[in-house]
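Batch 3, record 17
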Amino acid sequence: MRLKAIYIFSMFLLLGLIFVLANSPKFSGYEIVEKTKLQNQQGNEDFNKMMDVLTHQRCMNCHPSDHIPKQGDESHPHYFGMTRGEDDHGFEATTCNTCHQSENNMSSGVPGAPHWALAPASMAWEGLTRTEIAKRLLDKSMNGNRSHEDLIKHMTEDDLVLWAWEPGVDAEGEQRTLPPVSKEDFKIAVENWFANGAVIPSK
Amino acid sequence: MKISITVNGVVKALEIADENTPLLWVIRDTLNLKGTKFGCGKAACGACTLHVDGEAVRSCSYPVKFAEGKEVTTIEGLGDRENPHPVQQAWIDEIVPQCGYCQPGFMMATAALLNKVPTPTDEDIDKNIINVCRCGTYYRMRKAIHKAAELQADKVMNESKTL
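Prediction for the assembled complex:
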C-alpha cells in the first residue's frame, strides 16, 4: 500500500514537472525565438550594408530628386547646367555621351561606364530615408517593373552599378572615393537580404 | 593597333600606338587637321568638339579606339569657302569671333544642335551650347545660331524645290 502511494506520488510529480517545463516561456519555442532574432539581426546587418552603399555619393549622385546630376564627394550640381532632359541622358545635342563614354577616361578624369545616364526620376533617392529608399526600390510601379530576381541581377551585375567600385580619377587626377563596403560584401548583403525576404526594418 | 576611321568622308587606315590616345590628337597631329582645338583637356570647355556619327563629342576625352569604323566630322568637313555650312556662313555674317580659338568647337556644337532642333529657342541654346569662350562672344553667337537656323531652313527649302 505504501509502495503504491509512493508510485502514484512520483507519477504526479513527473507529470507536473513535464507540464511546467512544457509551458515555460524559456523552454517553449526556445529555438525558434533565438533563430528569428538571429535572422532579424542578420537581415538588419545586410540591409544596413546595402544601404551604406546606396546612400553613398557614388550611387546617390545619379539618383537625384531635383533632376540635376551631382558630382564629387560633396555632391555639387553637375557643372555646365546639365540636367536630366527628356530621357535621362541630358539634352538633344549635348547628352551624357558628349563627354562620358563607356569607360573611365584616365587622362581627362571624365568618368564613364556602359549606358551612362541618370537613374529614372521614379528612382530618385536623394533626401529619402533608408527605409523610404528600400520601399521605392521594391515598388514595381517605380523600379521599372523589376522583380526581386531582376533587382538582384541589376544590383550585383550591372556595369553602371558596379562602376561605383571602379570610379577612376577625377579631373585633378585624384582617385574618387569608394563606397564604404567592398563590392564582394555588397553583393553578398544584397543576395542575403533578398533571400531572407527583403524585410525593411521599421527603424 | 590598326584602326579605320572615316574622316570628313574619307576613309583613313591608321596605325595607332596607344588605343587610348585622344581622338583630338589623331585628328590634329596624325591627320594634320588643325581646326579642332585643344582647350582644357577635361571635356569641359568644348574647344575640341567634333562629330562622331553625327553626335557632338569632346574629342580630348574620346579614346581613338571608340572611333573605329565610325564617321568623324571636323570643322574642315562641315563646309568650305565655296560651300560654307549654314553655321559657318552665319558666323561670318554676324562677325562672331574675337580671338577665334574656341569658335570651331562652338560651330560644331551648333551644327549638331541644328540637326536635332532645327529652330532652337534661346532655352534650347542655353541647354545645348555649353562651350566656353573667354572672349565672351556669347551674345553674337546666340544671334548667329538663330541666323544659322534660318539659313539652314532656307537651304532645306531650296534643295526640296530642286528635287
